[in-house]
Write a structure and sequence with these properties.
The structure is a single chain. This protein is about 35% helix and about 20% strand. It is an alpha/beta fold. It folds into 2 domains: about 260 residues, Glycoside hydrolase/deacetylase (TIM Barrel, Alpha-Beta Barrel); about 120 residues, no CATH class. The chain has a 4-stranded mixed beta sheet, with helices on both faces. β18, α11 and β19 form a beta-alpha-beta unit. α1 packs parallel to α9. It starts with 9 loop residues before the first helix and ends in an 11-residue tail after the last helix. Bound molecules: zinc ion. The site of zinc ion has 5 residues, from loops. Zinc ion (ZN) binds next to loops.
Length: about 425
């Protein structure tokens, strides 16, 4: 571990340069959540990358566990971190908790302080192949628990907007798991991230890749291969910084897709949205270009069409209200009704323990007709962000990291 950090910033600067160069070659700008005390000690170095288009987000004042901190402590620490960023001439709009950990107070404090996004929730993709030896299996399980990771097989891996703050999930296995927990070598490191890309592409999900710049030596080839493959795909992958993803998701939440019956079996479809919105149509005889499986893209945001069923999702009256909220975030227009025959797709959720992934699969399996607002801009199929936390730059940062987070007594963990 210590060999990664030199007494001066030059060893780490070389790693940041390499990360920056790999990303730049593929037209990608990274997001590097940075601990504020590290920025305070290395402002010129880090500002150089911001000038080249990298984004720095706040990664704590010190590298502490925010799941263990009271609200007031978090407010003080994160406000102080913002001041350090401002003093370095960097306007940060996002936050990632050290160790991908946070609690409910973190979210409240971020809203109060005017942050636009939060990116600390880990989502586990089922991409680790083959049997693991006992110690790798135990280490892997420990990491999943430490991160309180969600299961990508159950949830839609997309940003969520709640009260003005966008929550952007982080994909695992991350670099730390690939190397420290699973002990993978090439070509398995690259293969594992390519499987995450395949998974997210198949489902239209978001792949927030986490690679600490300090590990670029080990994982540079995997980063390059993953970004290059994402760039090759058609339909495209929306590759963006986290602040760009947050701003897209916020803009998208203001788009409105309406379907109204005009006469008998005719419907008026109208999307009020920015030009880069994606309007998907299925089973409708309108001008369209192929996109993915049954879905096509309509370049016209307003049209009238004949259809024997209404091109929206019907939701049964007994379904929990969270189902309708989820479909709204998914850009699917819906009607609440028990008459399942009149809609292009229909969902009936009898219990409060439902899975987003299953609901989407059921809708996807319906032949339509359907219209919806695509998740990503300009007809992109899925999304990807290259991110990497900067926890330390010099050996001094690394040593101080342990000391700084131990100054305060450990508190009970909040549920
Ligand atoms: Zn960190």
């Amino acid at each position: 571990m210590l060999s990664r950090f030199g007494a001066t910033s030059s060893a780490m600067a070389q790693r940041l340069d390499r990360y920056d160069a790999i990303a730049a070659e593929l037209g990608v700008r990274p997001t590097w959540p940075t601990t504020a005390c590290v920025l305070a000690r290395n402002p010129e170095l880090l500002r150089r990358y911001v000038d080249r288009g990298a984004e720095l987000a706040v990664h704590g004042l010190v590298h502490g566990d925010h799941a263990m901190l009271e609200r007031a402590e978090q407010r003080d620490a994160i406000a102080r971190a913002l001041e350090i960023f401002a003093h370095a001439g960097i306007e940060a709009t996002g936050f990632r908790g050290p160790y991908l950990r946070y609690n409910a107070a973190t979210i409240e404090v971020l809203r109060e302080l005017g942050f636009r996004y939060h990116s600390s929730q880990a989502v586990l993709f089922p991409v680790v192949d083959g049997p693991l030896d006992a110690s790798a299996a135990a280490g892997y399980q420990l990491a999943i628990e430490l991160y309180s990771a969600r299961d990508a097989r159950r949830v839609a891996v997309i940003p969520r907007l709640a009260d003005g703050l966008v929550d952007i999930p982080v994909a695992i296995p991350d670099d730390e798991i690939l190397i420290e927990r699973l002990g993978l070598e090439e070509p398995e490191r690259t293969a594992t991230w390519l499987r995450v890309l395949d998974w997210t592409y198949a489902r239209g999900d978001l792949f927030t890749l986490q690679l600490h710049p300090e590990r670029i030596g080990e994982l540079g080839p995997a980063l390059h291969a993953t970004l290059a493959e994402a760039r090759r795909r058609r339909p495209s992958v929306f590759i963006a910084r986290l602040d760009e993803l947050a701003s897209w998701w916020t803009r998208r939440s203001g788009f409105a897709l309406s379907v109204t019956r005009t006469d008998g079996d005719r419907y008026q479809v109208r999307l009020r949205a920015d030009d880069d919105a994606t309007l998907l149509v299925r089973g409708l005889d309108v001008p369209r270009r192929p996109w993915h499986r049954d879905d096509a893209i309509s370049d016209r945001f307003e049209f009238e069409v004949a259809s024997d069923r209404m091109p929206v999702v019907g939701i049964s009256r007994r379904s929990p209200p969270a189902v309708a909220r989820f479909l709204a975030e998914e850009g699917l227009p819906f009607e609440i009704s028990d008459d399942r025959r009149v809609y292009g797709a229909y969902v009936d959720v009898a219990s409060t323990t439902w899975r987003e992934a299953e609901l989407l699969e059921a809708i996807d399996a319906s032949g339509g007709p359907l219209v919806r607002i695509g998740r990503w801009p300009a007809g992109a199929r899925s999304a990807l962000a290259a991110t990497g936390d900067i926890d330390a730059i010099t050996l001094l940062d690394f040593a101080l990291r342990s000391w700084e987070t131990r100054r305060k007594p450990q508190k009970e963990r909040h549920p």
